[in-house]
Automatic annotation (TrEMBL):
GO function term, MF aspect, one: oxidoreductase activity, acting on NAD(P)H
Residue span, Amine oxidase domain: 106-342
Protein name from the UniProt record: Amine oxidase domain-containing protein
Superkingdom of source: Eukaryota
Any GO CC annotation of this UniProt entry: extracellular region
Entry-linked InterPro entries: Amino_oxidase, FAD/NAD-bd_sf, RNLS
């Protein structure tokens, strides 16, 4: 059996892993994503070829385990055993909320390394820089075909779409649109899913800069302190690396993101960069590079009713929507739970 997954984020990665465990070598897993790198909203952005060890996590910053959750604990333990994550050092941090039932972990090689690890464990065929714009049913062979703007590129007995639902509704055409339109309840529920928006700015420093003059590694900025900035981190220090090259990541408030979501990323990014230096006057301005990211779909603030983990649009062949749009929360643990429910549903439909 062949399964196509659209989206190279954490939901597709975990679903791929679970499907590989379920079916072994009998299943072929093929992933498509419009981006140039793996990760989705768990993306790690690198400076340049001249400074390849300098990077920032532009989306999710670290993972949080609920100690009482025996299901997600197994996934965390695998990541720990294979040295993908390690405990987050909370010394010299500001604003992190303590919870006795929670443990925070950082990814030394960047947050995207977690997504990459699961895809590697799942043994997938990865296709990046491929924006899928159409999903059609092929009645001659009972499969779904997927296409870019230019051409049809693949087909399979099952297609799982994990990109944010607003992108599904506005970017995908073909049979998928017809299937959604035919089910008024599903269409209405999908239209109610909402995401927050925010901007991220990464500052990169060369190895020659040996001190940023910043005493903390993570700083959650209270809204009373700044109208725009909400999260700051010396990214290499956040990953328990306290030597050059240094990098800093800044993320804005949801309100700022919503206000400027239609504005030019570069213009807003420059504005945010200046706000960073105004807020941190002691921070070195000797940067080697700056990168800006607009998260139009950052975190789910209103998910699908009852958080089923997925929605099946067609059973045979299978067309499924999955991911954190259908999860109880917009975090790693909720994505694990949603992926488990998705695979539970897939198994009886494909046997």
């Amino acid at each position: 059996m062949k399964v196509i997954l659209i989206g190279a984020g954490i939901s597709s990665a975990i679903i791929s892993l679970l499907l590989r465990r379920q079916y072994g070598p009998a299943i072929k897993l093929v992933v498509f994503d419009k981006g140039r790198s793996i990760g989705g909203r768990m993306t790690t952005s690198f400076d340049s070829e001249e400074n390849p060890h300098c990077s920032v996590d532009t989306g999710a910053q670290y993972l949080t385990l609920t100690k009482s959750n025996s299901i997600t604990t197994k996934f965390f333990q695998q990541l720990i055993d294979d040295h993908v994550i390690e405990l987050l050092d909370k010394q010299n941090t500001i604003g992190i909320r303590e919870n006795q039932d929670k443990i925070d972990y950082t990814a030394p090689r960047g947050i995207a390394s977690i997504v990459r690890y699961f895809f590697e464990q799942a043994v997938v065929e990865m296709n990046l820089s491929k924006q899928i714009t159409k999903i059609d049913f092929n009645s001659t062979n009972d499969k779904f075909t997927i296409s870019t703007d230019k051409e049809q590129i693949d087909e399979a007995e099952a297609v799982i779409v994990t990109i944010p639902v607003p992108q599904v509704l506005c970017q995908l055409q073909g049979s998928i649109t017809q299937l959604i339109d035919q089910n008024k309840e599903v269409k209405e529920n999908l239209s109610q899913i909402k995401y927050s928006s925010r901007f991220a700015v990464g500052l990169f420093y060369s190895s020659s800069v040996t001190n940023l003059n910043i005493p903390w590694r993570i700083y959650y900025v209270d809204k009373k302190e700044h109208e725009c900035l909400r999260f700051l981190a010396i990214d290499n220090a956040k990953r328990n690396k306290n030597e050059p090259p240094f990098s800093l990541i800044a993320q804005t408030s949801v309100e700022f993101g919503a206000k400027h979501i239609d504005d030019d990323k570069m213009i807003i990014g420059e504005e945010i960069k200046e706000k960073i230096f105004q807020f941190l006057p002691e921070l070195s301005r000797d940067i080697s590079n700056t990168k800006y990211h607009k998260w139009k779909y950052s975190q789910v603030i209103q998910s699908y009713p009852n958080q089923p983990g997925y929605v099946v649009l067609n059973e045979h062949p299978l067309l499924m929507l999955a991911g954190d749009s259908f999860a109880a929360d917009s975090n790693f643990e909720a994505c694990i739970q949603a992926a488990i429910e998705s695979v539970k549903k897939i198994h009886p439909l494909t046997t």
